């Protein structure tokens, strides 16, 4: 199973340029999380901070009790072995074929024999749909295949935490859909904690268990996917709908006068104010084991339900009921080489032959709304820029 990643008060600047400040969140063990944000909000910097490649000025990143910000390099290097990283461009060596690219971490960081390396590499390449392509060079294959080769390389050391930096960049919508399903299938097979950095709404809305968003040097919010997808926060709504109207501008955040003028103007023909329609979260492909993270998430989210906004509570209950209706009655056998998985159990047992229902507490009403998970900060200073 993956491990929990706890981020506390993380702050990073480059010179006088503040990238983000006081970022606090927890990536639950084994679950899939997504970090959204406009270009220039420091999403990639955040990923590199988690693994200790960039040192924030303040805050902690705790993994198995080790702080990736302030611990010794020896301890940080030990924890880094738990990570697998899928880089934005695949980061493949152009002169090496795919087999050699995927085998590289094994040869650099282990003393495995060649027959063991071959077995592992072929297994991981098959997991990402690249069986038979071992001899191809990166320049001979499509962008989607390069992404999958990069993912296979991230998997060869059996990571407990997988970081994906904009895995959809450069891919068409069809390949993005295949990649989204692949990420869910991998989570079902290896139960690793996953964090995906993206600005692709299709991936963000369909893949993760949890979502967060960076904007104006702050973490706007982080929590169950339904909280962000039902949020009425202007920057979140603008980003989800891809609207021009809202705090995000072409190259920087809009000032107060521009926002006031927009609010007073009627909607344009291509704009709407309808709530974002939440799509169904992707499920593992037929033949894959159930996602063990789904059962753990169900218990965790139900425990915090009363603290969430009413619209998020409603969306979560709908989502959990839909998931309960699709629970298999018999465990699905795991594919060869994958760890055995226990079938997820419904949180609320069925009270009739139909699918089990997860309902609000007695009284017929959802619990009273509690505080937002992470409310946005007040007015920010000058616009953020710098590294993505």
TrEMBL record:
Keywords: ATP-binding, Nucleotide-binding, Transport. PANTHER family: INTERMEMBRANE PHOSPHOLIPID TRANSPORT SYSTEM ATP-BINDING PROTEIN MLAF, PROTEIN TRIGALACTOSYLDIACYLGLYCEROL 3, CHLOROPLASTIC. This is Phospholipid/cholesterol/gamma-HCH transport system ATP-binding protein. Residues 5-241 form the ABC transporter domain. SUPFAM superfamilies: P-loop containing nucleoside triphosphate hydrolases. The lineage of its organism: Bacteria, Bacillati, Actinomycetota, Actinomycetes, Streptosporangiales. The keyword Transport applies. Gene3D superfamilies: P-loop containing nucleotide triphosphate hydrolases. InterPro entries: AAA+_ATPase, ABC_transporter-like_ATP-bd, ABC_transporter-like_CS, P-loop_NTPase. Residues 254-296, 323-388 are annotated as: Disordered. It comes from Thermomonospora cellulosilytica. GO terms for molecular function: ATP binding; ATP hydrolysis activity. Residues 346-388 have a biased composition (Pro residues). Pfam families: ABC_tran (PF00005).
